[in-house]
Known about the structure:
- The chain is of the alpha+beta class and 510 residues long.
- It is built from eight helices and 13 strands.
- Helix content is 16%, strand content 16%.
- The C terminus is likely disordered.
Amino acid sequence: MSMHRLSGCPSCAEPLEEGDRFCGVCGYAVSAPPPAAVDHPTIPIPPAPPAPPARPAAAGAAAGGYGSPAPAPGVSAPGVPHAAAEPAPGWGSVAAAAPTLVGDPAAWVTAPAEPEPEPEPRQGPAGVTYAASGHGNPYGNATPPEGTAWGAAEHPYGAADGPETRHDRPGGDPGTPAEGTPWGTGEAPYENPPQPGGAAGGKTCVACRAGHVDTDGYCEHCGHAQPRERDHIEEELGSVAAVTDRGLRHHRNEDSFAVSATALPDGSAATVAVVCDGVSSASRPDEASAAAAVAANEALLEALPRGAHPQEAMHEAILAAAEAVNALAPETPGAQNAPACTLVGAVVSGGLLTIGWVGDSRAYWVPDDRAALPRRLTEDDSWAAQMVAAGLMGEAEAYADVRAHAITGWLGADAYDLEPHTATFKPDHPGVVVVCTDGLWNYAESAREMAQVVPADAATRPLHSAQVLVGYALDGGGHDNVTVAVVPFATHPEQEPGPDAEPGPAAGPE
């Protein structure tokens, strides 16, 4: 073996064979004299070798990710931040002052037809901007099978020139079917379409669309956690509809709702909507809200057909809901915080609108004629409301306090003396009742703000309106679970309202 023959390329260390005059990788002239040793403070990175021939799509996907090119040898692929998508504009804000019951009529005008200018992006806690990903699926867009390139509308980091999905405007989400149109196969955000090769009789992962979901709720192939059934629920029943969503910050949905319809003794219809919000600081808040909504709804469906007055039926329904939540408390007192929730309900029957509530979930009246005054129909059981009612603080001061939204009334075994609030109204013009949790009204606190968000066709498209309102909260940040029910109210033809009549309570809160 000759002492002068090089065993490796001086440039890239590629092994050489007998007779090689040039390196087969970097092209270095092997016959040239070796470069003189020079003392450099740093060693330069040698130039990258020529790119190898293109490989099949499956091999490229395996090396560089789904549909992305593999990095060159010796060069690490730069990380792509998950929040690289275009941030979603913020919509609405929490008013610093207390919400008003009656707005200024002079300031009311019909919303213009042309689109409004885009507001600045909404910043969350610590300056976090929420990306404009599809909110129908809290886990983002599903990942295609390995080797399949991303489509323009499904890239996980968004397309720079693609349309932006909006949830707070009618028709803003091209992926949502028209009201009354069932989701097609593979369209429902929380249903897994059958996939070839998937486990028979099991659920398919919403992320990789190939793996089987185990009993713990995780994909056995990619390990992705699957959405829970309560993460997003929509229901429409005749003239009432409701939507609940987990939101963007909570790991589970602790809200619940119930909507129903029944007949009164005279044959007329009665519509019921109940919305409950679990108290997060208590144990099992999701169970508490579900139990309360079911119990209140069943009590109303039992009382109204036998002729009970709606206000009396609402009072008894709240007591029944409280008993259902109390039953969830641990047998050992003090072992843990007893399950608790808030409740707000609405009944439309016989030309009357009856509202009942405990806690800080709210009901709003939004007339079809937006020139008329909207109203908030409930008064929060909160620290700020108590301070204002007692005359100890002004509204601006009370609602600016950090204790402003601490609730003073709730359903649960450890609640103070339960005092259900009920009120009956007799509007003289048609409109809708918006029944919601604070996950929505935190982004549209006053009656005027809520009326501006509710679509003009809410009375004829309640489900679409509920979807728009939930999307409005999600685009605003979605810091809490969001639940809203939309209940249309139509005046009876035989009614003859006075010239100056306006919606008002026929009986004040108890």
